Give the backbone structure.
Amino acid sequence: MAKQVKKKKLQSREGRIYISTSYNNTIVTVTDNSGNAIVSSSAGARGFKGTRKGTSYAAGIVAQHVSKKAREMGMEKVAVFLKGPGTGRETAIRSVQASGLKVTSVRDVTPIPHNGCRPKKKRRV
């Protein structure tokens, strides 16, 4: 028999959603404003395998599932933080909005190298 987990209500109704998209997977995490993770899921955890994990459809399903769980816990307003070059960025935001959460802001926090790594040595023939 599976153990029943009691759902706890949140103290605040505001939070953050971090959407990390790569070419291979999408990870969505919901936190409160102080950064404590509440709900998290990925395309692999939702049942997608192989190259289908990196699709925009998978990103939408993951974002919809996570935001629905956050709504059940009492969250109403979220700020969205996007990271990575993946294909499911816009789809994930639309899924969050469609699930009933009010999106207050969207920020792109993709790390950008200022000068990058040192290049390989010059090839001599």
